[in-house]
Amino acid sequence: MKTVAIYPGSFDPVTLGHLSVLKRAAGLFSEVVVVVVHNPSKDPLFSIAERVALFEAAAKDLGANIRFSGLAEGLLVDHAKSLGATAIIKGFRTTADIEYELPMAQVNRDLSAIETVFVPAEPGYGYVSSSLVKEVVRLGGDASGYVSESVLTALRERLSQ
């Protein structure tokens, strides 16, 4: 039986922690669709199309069962249904992430019967966030341990403008 999951997030930018969650999710499902979403509470550095392209480049060696999509508006669960997904993958670093994500998981289930699967961050990435990575690069620090080389290059170029 084919199982499809979506892995949504703003991914601005994608980090090695995100890639770790994706790799593990790809081992659990027949297909994982990374859905780069617009989050109205955030001011992204990169457009949805740019974030999709950066994620595709960073994940190119993770498996043939990974696809990418963007979602600029509308309900995530409606997009998930249109993709044939039966699960939503959410990575978490701390209990604060769970407290934030759990109500959304419950509403998503109520709206669509789509289950959310929580995947913990690997200990080495538990403190890494996209916001932190952007701040490190913005201040001239070395973020090479947190993002792929292609993402680091894009960050440096964008933040130097």
Automatic annotation (TrEMBL):
One of its GO terms (cellular component) is cytoplasm. The record marks H18 as: Transition state stabilizer. The keyword Transferase applies. Substrate binds at S10, K42, L76, K90. Residues 6-135 form the Cytidyltransferase-like domain. It is an enzyme of class 2 (transferase). The keyword Cytoplasm applies. Its cofactor is Mg(2+). It catalyses: (R)-4'-phosphopantetheine + ATP + H(+) = 3'-dephospho-CoA + diphosphate. Its EC number is 2.7.7.3. PANTHER family: PHOSPHOPANTETHEINE ADENYLYLTRANSFERASE. This is Phosphopantetheine adenylyltransferase. The lineage of its organism: Bacteria, Bacillati, Actinomycetota, Actinomycetes, Micrococcales.
